[in-house]
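Section 5: illustrative case.
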């Protein structure tokens, strides 16, 4: 009987660790989705579950993102970071997102985009939305040197991108 009780406790603890959700976010394991929308976040929350495929972190106060922002999230295929006031995207920010296919950075204030920011293994990134996000000419040049050859649907409206 004690053995059965210990197994139950262990399974309950393991399940709560696996299914944990960051504070101020909504998680749906069934839909493989995490939403952290308009929660006044200053950084990408930690503890996002590994099952996440769709990640929405929108309408917050995040000013910069880097490679530490998305550690352990290799299953994410769709990432929306719109309306966050992001001004800087560091080198290899998205390199750990091995399954990333769609990235929305629209309505941010991107002033610095490191040329290797969009480096994703296997070049899985197909859709990139930068509408109303490119803050200055430097960010456009940084983006141009990023070698985003695999994009099917580049969305960069807003007037600064020289290849529209």
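Designed sequence:
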């Amino acid at each position: 009987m004690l053995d059965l009780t210990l197994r139950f406790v262990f399974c309950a603890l393991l399940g709560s660790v696996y299914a944990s959700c960051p504070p101020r976010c909504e998680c749906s394991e069934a839909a493989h989705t995490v939403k952290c929308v308009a929660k006044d976040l200053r950084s990408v929350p930690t503890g996002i579950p590994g099952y996440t495929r769709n990640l929405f972190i929108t309408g917050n106060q995040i000013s910069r993102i880097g490679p530490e922002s998305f550690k352990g999230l290799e299953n994410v295929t769709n990432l929306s970071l719109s309306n966050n006031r992001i001004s800087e995207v560091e080198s290899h920010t998205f390199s750990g997102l091995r399954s990333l296919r769609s990235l929305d950075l629209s309505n941010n204030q991107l002033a610095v985009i490191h040329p290797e920011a969009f480096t994703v293994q296997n070049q899985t990134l197909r859709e990139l939305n930068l509408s109303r996000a490119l803050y200055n000419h430097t960010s456009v040049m940084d983006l141009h040197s990023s070698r985003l050859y695999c994009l099917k649907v580049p969305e960069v409206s807003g007037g600064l991108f020289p290849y529209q």
